[in-house]
């Protein structure tokens, strides 16, 4: 018989697992990993401009995508073009970024699988006498290691020609040059930290769903068990 068991700790772990998976996925897909040096407005662009801020535009560069402003058009939001610069994996600008993409993709794949499974832990807490929470926590720890490897390798690719075109000639491995880090990089770091927090917190979720109070509720014949 299926017993739906909901506790504060198990629900918090489930929500964090889902948030972490989505945060890492969004960061990986974003082009806002590097914010390039300012591109001054051309004279023609200034002539076409009808008003608004005249601040230079900062293009952004991701692992496999980029955002840039189309020239020779009115400078409105619609002039910003975002999309992949690499049509296939081999066209990613740096071998280090290719490795980063592999490690991040593996970590995100594991996190998405755990997030999917975590939804069903309210009804199924063990498989083959193994706690799903403990197994998921172990997988989250492995995913966190993949994410760390990807984030460590990513700055090593700042010396590639693509990054230099955005960040200037002073850019090199682990040196940003004229660029700055975008929100996607910080989101990936924050998601990695939360991944390890989830891995540790999974043990608390397992303890909460197998506590004596839960067992008492099951013995009383309740199918829906909600505990603080």
From TrEMBL:
Pfam families: L_HMGIC_fpl. The keyword Cell wall biogenesis/degradation does not apply. It is a multi-pass membrane protein. The chain crosses the membrane at residues 12-35, 96-120, 132-154, 183-203. The keyword S-adenosyl-L-methionine does not apply. GO terms for biological process: single fertilization. InterPro entries: LHFPL. It is found in: Membrane. Keywords: Fertilization, Membrane, Transmembrane, Transmembrane helix. One of its GO terms (cellular component) is membrane. Belongs to the LHFP family. This is LHPL2 protein. It comes from Chauna torquata.
């Amino acid at each position: 018989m299926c017993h739906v068991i909901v506790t504060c700790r198990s629900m918090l772990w489930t929500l964090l697992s889902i948030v972490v998976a989505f945060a890492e996925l969004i960061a990986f897909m974003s082009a806002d990993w590097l914010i390039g040096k300012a591109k001054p407005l051309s004279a023609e662009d200034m002539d076409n401009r009808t008003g608004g801020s005249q601040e230079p535009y900062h293009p952004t560069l991701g692992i496999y995508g980029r955002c840039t402003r189309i020239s020779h058009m009115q400078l409105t939001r619609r002039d910003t073009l975002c999309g992949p610069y690499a049509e296939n994996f081999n066209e990613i600008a740096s071998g280090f970024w290719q490795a980063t993409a592999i490690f991040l993709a593996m970590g995100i794949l594991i996190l998405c699988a755990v997030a999917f499974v975590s939804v069903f832990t309210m009804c199924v807490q063990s498989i083959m006498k193994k706690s799903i929470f403990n197994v998921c926590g172990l997988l989250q720890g492995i995913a966190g290691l993949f994410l760390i490897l990807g984030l460590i390798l990513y700055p090593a690719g700042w010396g590639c020609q693509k990054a230099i075109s955005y960040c200037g000639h002073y850019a090199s491995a682990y040196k940003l040059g004229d660029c700055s880090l975008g929100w996607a990089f910080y989101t990936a770091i924050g998601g990695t930290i939360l991944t390890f927090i989830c891995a540790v917190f999974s043990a608390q979720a397992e303890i909460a769903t197998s506590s004596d109070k839960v067992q008492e509720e099951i013995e009383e014949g309740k199918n829906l068990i909600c505990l603080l």
